[in-house]
Design goal:
74% of the residues lie in helices and 0% in strands. With 192 residues, it is mainly α. The longest helix is centred in the last third of the chain and has 43 residues.
Amino acid sequence: MFIILKIYGVYVMRHNIIVITLFLFSLTGFGCQEQLTKVEDTTSFEKRTPIGVKDSVKITKRIPIESVLPCLNLSQEQMDKIKFILKESRTCEMECKLKLKTTMESLRKQQAEKLAQYKGFERDSLVRQQVELIKKEYAKLAKETQLVFQVNMKKCNETTLSLIEGLLTEEQLVIFNKWKLTGQLPCERKKS
């Protein structure tokens, strides 16, 4: 304590002691503890249940197209053609997913090879810059690949829906469009 008095001077030390004492007195003397635990304002805003994301947006799972087909009262010929179209649609989707998988694996392999060049080097600013460039390039290519995948999947889906729509009558098309719009079953479930 004497060292502090010599370094900073007597005035500074006395001033700090006074400030600390006043601070401690204010915490205990003015009832800080009571204010933290005592709730005085109970307005209706605090009583109500807060609105969450789930309250405002109700997310429902989209009914698959196969579940909608019984609602359409299809003829046997229509059903056979639609089953063929759906089979082709699944093939298209599988090809898109396979292409995405192989492309992403190739990109990861290329990134690993490029990063391996800098393994064992000291992490100076130039090496860090090069590693960051490689990572950014990979992220950009991966994002572009994902976008291409989404576009291709959308094309598969749109082609499938347009081919099915071409086979339907006007009445069936109204029911089918209701499903497309809402994603929900457009008729009562038939009990088997």
